[in-house]
Write a structure and sequence with these properties.
By secondary structure, the protein is mainly beta. The protein is 6% helix and 38% strand. It has helices at residues 2-5, 16-20, 280-286, 337-341; strands at residues 29-39, 45-46, 70-73, 76-77, 80-82, 87-94, 101-106, 111-116, 119-127, 129-132, 137-143, 151-156, 175-180, 210-220, 226-230, 248-255, 261-265, 271-277, 296-297, 308-311, 315-322, 328-334, 345-350. Strands 1, 2, 3, 4, 6, 8, 9 and 11 form an eight-stranded mixed sheet that branches. The chain has a six-stranded mixed sheet with strand order 15-14-16-21-18-19, with no helix packed on it. A hairpin with a 5-residue loop joins β14 (210-220) and β15. The longest helix is centred in the last third of the chain and has 7 residues, at 280-286. It is globular, with a radius of gyration of 21 Å.
């Protein structure tokens, strides 16, 4: 509730490499923070004090997820942005409690993806649709140069809950904002989309010293409310993940719930390996994984350093994680805020190594 009611903003870190690129800058480099909220008649924020199936024993109560009926961008309800017929750089951030966004432009236009959560990807990727889980970020360029006098709507068609929930309302939550290509060109657009941005050191599975299997599950409390759990443990269960500083690990997220959980690790950046469907009933009965399909590689919008990953239901999602440079206690959690509060958050502790950093370490 504190995050829902409070202010949210960006923290952008630039370096000399970024400044050397001829990307859109200044007024043409804009953050777009997307959220869903609900309002009362007097304009104040609404947040439910009960799940839909009211539990009279507990008032107010935990709610399993929150989905608002109104979309905000940078704090404004269904806004429009007047743009020039040129290239713009947008930093998309999903700041919602629980809502996923699957974004596309109407009329259809390309998003040119140039960066993910933790910086530039290797080379730009053209996408007609991008998916944003809560807390996920995408760095994109949209080219309005051939759109003078036109209006472009940023639309959303992600179900709630994602990916198998109710469809969005085409008149409300199906719309995000509008771009009006109505401003005259203030100067020649000299920006370009570079062919390459940087070289990424792709981690080898053979370099991983540990492979952990971590269940994403749920249970019920004494009032019948849903408790979301990581590896069947609550927050205050003793720490069970203790990676060594300087080591590489593979974390396998085994999702037995109907929700896609955006899993976020503090301290580190990681790379997404793949996802693979498995037989959930067989797993629950035997504790063994029986895969029902081949590995699915990371989506093109995920080809870079990440700090959060979408974990679809009935799939094992694999990430490869370098733990450096700090030791100490951090957390990993689902970034659906209602889930992490009850109780889908766990501490982990990075232990000191008795050797120096290995030669694979570079700056993400």
């Amino acid at each position: 509730m504190n995050i829902y009611a409070g202010l949210v903003g960006f923290y952008l870190i630039r370096n000399s490499r970024e400044r050397s690129l001829a990307l859109p800058k200044g007024d043409f480099d804009l953050p777009l923070l997307i959220q869903d909220k609900s309002f009362k008649q007097d304009g104040s924020l609404f947040y439910p004090d009960q799940p839909k199936n009211k539990l009279q024993k507990v008032v107010p109560s935990i709610v399993p997820e929150f989905f608002g009926d109104t979309i905000l961008v940078n704090g404004k309800v269904w806004p429009y942005l007047e743009v020039e017929p040129r290239r713009y750089r947008f930093r998309f951030l999903n700041g919602s409690n629980s809502r996923y966004f699957r974004l596309k432009l109407s009329p259809a236009q390309w998003f040119y993806l140039i960066g993910t959560d933790s910086g530039f990807i290797e080379k730009p990727v053209g996408l007609k649709t991008i998916t944003l889980a809560p807390a996920e970020r995408m760095d994109v360029i949209i080219d309005f140069s051939q759109m003078q006098g036109k209006e472009v709507i940023l639309k959303n068609n992600a179900p709630t809950a994602f990916p198998n929930g109710d469809p969005v309302d085409a008149e409300t939550t199906g719309n995000v904002m509008q771009f009006r290509v109505s401003k005259p060109l203030s100067s020649q657009d000299t920006s370009i989309i570079p062919e390459t941005f940087r070289s990424i050191h792709w981690l080898s599975e053979a370099a991983a010293s540990v492979s952990r299997f971590l269940e994403l599950g749920e249970s019920k409390d004494q009032y019948g409310r849903t408790i979301m759990l990581l590896d069947r443990k609550k927050w205050d269960t003793p720490i069970s993940e203790n990676p060594i500083s300087g080591s590489i690990e593979i974390w396998n997220f085994v999702n037995v719930t109907p929700d896609d959980h955006p899993i976020h690790l503090h301290l580190v950046q990681f790379q997404i390996l793949d996802r693979r469907a498995f037989d959930v009933k067989h797993y629950k009965k035997t504790g063994r994984l029986h895969f029902t399909g081949p590995p699915i590689p990371a989506h093109p919008q995920e080809h870079g350093w990440k700090d959060m990953v979408r974990t679809p239901p009935d799939h094992v999602t694999r990430i490869i994680v370098p733990f450096f440079p700090y030791t100490g206690q951090y957390v990993w959690h689902c970034h659906m805020l209602e889930h992490e509060d009850y109780e889908m958050m766990r501490p982990y502790r990075v232990l000191p190594a008795n050797f120096g950093y290995p030669n694979w370490i570079g700056k993400p």
